[in-house]
Design a protein that fits this description.
The protein is an alpha+beta fold and 424 residues long.
Length: 424
């Protein structure tokens, strides 16, 4: 399989510094002038520089293209053309083909790679694969891994053989079969610290391989100048290395076995620390929050003036037109609701003549009773008033009448009115 992958790697050519004016079809036509081309893929790096991969049918065709187009000048750019490079360790540890699996996982993708570019890359191994690039829900940026599902197992095997270990933008792709999600496959990632300086990924694989199937292994970090104290050799204590590794097993039980067997083991002069890798949720939450605020701030920074002018325009339109329209609409609705209630009320009683006549009769009886009550109260009030007047004037009337003999015409008229009131 290593030789097969090495042969297939020689049919892929990496083309860098492609001018922005050239699209995928023009690049393919350019290389097709020299040798037959199977397909072409164009992508952009994080700095928006355009580069591409050109797939040939034969390794000799790829070498011919490299010799002819290396240093080729076009549209003010000098092309850099070379054979696609592979990680040799990835080629040596390439996994066996599973004839029943069609879903693969792609790790360590460059963050600038989009879903369309990922689809273009992996569609060279099969027709219409399903591609899913995982992104951060807060920022929308790529999480540098994704999944590809093919229709045939042969297409998935070809993609693993062709792209596992491929170097793109200083990243080495890790392509393997995706594991089905279950309780057994969760929590299988191990964190290994204090590795010796000269240890390689293959050494780590050899160390951890006896305890289960290894899905992935990666070393990061470098040697530190600090020293740890070893009781037996305190004078020449071995260095504490900053190099760490992440080892992913196929099942959680295998990871537990590796921890119990290798944690604290003295390996090549260092005491290894092996434990489950834990995600720092607080740091991740803080980063997501920072990214979210940064994203919002960038929107405000880029569109602040548009937002201000838009707010002023909306306020002007609202005060001039919208408020009047809304108020008239609200009043129209109130009038409509009142009219509808009146219509429903009228329809309710007009549909039943007996009910309507009974209601009219009840209203008339009520009005008659109110009128009778009003008349009775008026008669009582008038009688009480007359009684009070009679009582008050029985004492004052004789002196007034005696005084009227020498009174003026005006005083006589007033006295006559009082007499008339008493008589009535």
């Amino acid at each position: 399989m290593a030789s097969q992958l090495d042969c297939e790697a020689r049919t892929i050519v990496l083309v860098e510094f492609i001018p922005d004016e050239l699209d995928r079809q023009r690049v393919q036509e350019l290389f097709s002038e020299i040798v037959p081309v199977e397909s072409t893929i164009l992508m952009r790096s994080r700095t928006s520089a355009k580069y591409g991969l050109v797939f040939f049918y034969q390794p000799q065709d790829a070498l011919t293209a490299v010799e002819h187009f290396e240093g080729y000048e076009i549209l003010g750019r000098t092309l850099r053309v070379s054979l696609a490079q592979y990680d040799k360790e990835a080629i040596e540890k390439s996994q066996n083909v599973d004839e029943n699996r069609t879903n693969i996982i792609v790790n360590y993708l460059p963050q600038s790679v989009t879903r369309n570019e990922m689809y273009s890359l992996f569609s060279t191994c099969g027709e219409s694969p399903q591609c899913k690039l995982m992104v951060n829900i807060c920022t929308g940026t790529s999480r540098c891994y994704g999944f590809v599902k093919y229709h045939l197992p042969e297409e998935a095997a070809k993609a693993i053989n062709l792209f596992d270990g491929l170097k793109i933008q200083n990243k080495i792709l890790r392509v393997s079969y995706a594991r089905p999600c279950s309780e057994q496959t969760r929590g299988t990632n191990l964190y290994v610290n204090n590795l010796p300086e000269d240890v390689t990924e293959e050494d780590v694989r050899v160390l951890f391989r006896p305890y289960g199937q290894i899905i992935n292994c990666r070393i990061i970090g470098e040697k530190s100048t600090r020293h740890q104290v070893v009781p037996d050799t305190a004078e020449n204590s071995p260095p504490i290395s900053k190099r760490v590794a992440f080892v992913i097993y196929n099942q959680r039980s295998q990871a537990k076995t590796a921890i119990s067997m290798l944690n604290g083991v003295f390996y090549q002069g260092n005491f290894l620390g092996v434990k489950f890798a834990k995600l720092d949720y607080l740091r991740t939450g803080y980063q997501n929050l920072t990214y979210s605020f940064g994203y919002i701030f960038s929107i405000i920074q880029n569109y602040a003036w548009y937002m201000v002018f838009g707010g002023l325009a909306f306020y002007y339109i609202y005060t001039k037109f919208l408020r009047t329209i809304l108020e008239s609409t609200f009043l129209s609705y109130e009038n409509y609701k009142k009219q509808k209630e009146e219509q429903e009320y009228a329809a309710k009683y007009h549909k039943n003549p007996d009910l309507f006549s009974a209601r009219v009769s009840a209203q008339q009886n009520r009005a008659q009773k109110l009128q009778e009550q009003y008349d009775q109260e008026a008669r009582e009030h008038q009688a009480k008033l007359k009684e009070n007047i009679i009582l008050s004037w029985n004492l004052e009337l004789p002196p007034i009448i005696g005084h009227l003999k020498g009174a003026s015409a005006e005083e006589e008229d007033v006295a006559n009115k009082y007499v008339f009131l008493l008589n009535s």
